Amino acid sequence: MKLYTRTGDSGKTSLIGGRVDKDHLRVEAYGTIDELNSFIGQAMTLLKEETYKDIYNELEKIQHELFDCGGDLANIHDKIPFKATEEIVTFLEERIDDYIKQAPPLEKFILPGGTPASAAIHIARTVARRAERCIVSLKKEEEINDVALKYINRLSDYLFAVARVINTRAGEKDVEYERSALVFRSKKGE
Hints:
6% strand; 4 strands; two-stranded antiparallel sheet; mainly alpha
């Protein structure tokens, strides 16, 4: 099998069910998810210690789910079902709720950074936000699997929570944005 096919030399690429220009919104959306997946893989190389085994395993699961979301965004065939389901969104919500309890209360904006692993996760988080913007642009033009949009939105929140937990477990404090007002206040009873 050859790695190159030459079928894209004219600036077109294949989707599931058709061909489009390589700068099509759909290609930009799933391509940004691919970039996000790569940054998550890079961050995982910094999380091999036992302290982070749970996070490492979750990120590996997320990498597979990102492939599902990317595949769904590449799918324009009306007879091939989508792979991403609400369960993957629910999983992220449950993990976010747990990780919020593991880090110190948050009152101000924080700067990305701390440990190298946390900084790497923050990079993935910002790429997730860009992927979300790409998907929103695509959704304005064409039908998509809405779960992919929800998932990427929730994933950026998950990555934020994970970055804070990584710093906490390493004994590293988050750096608060020095001109930040109190923006995250806990509600009474929480």
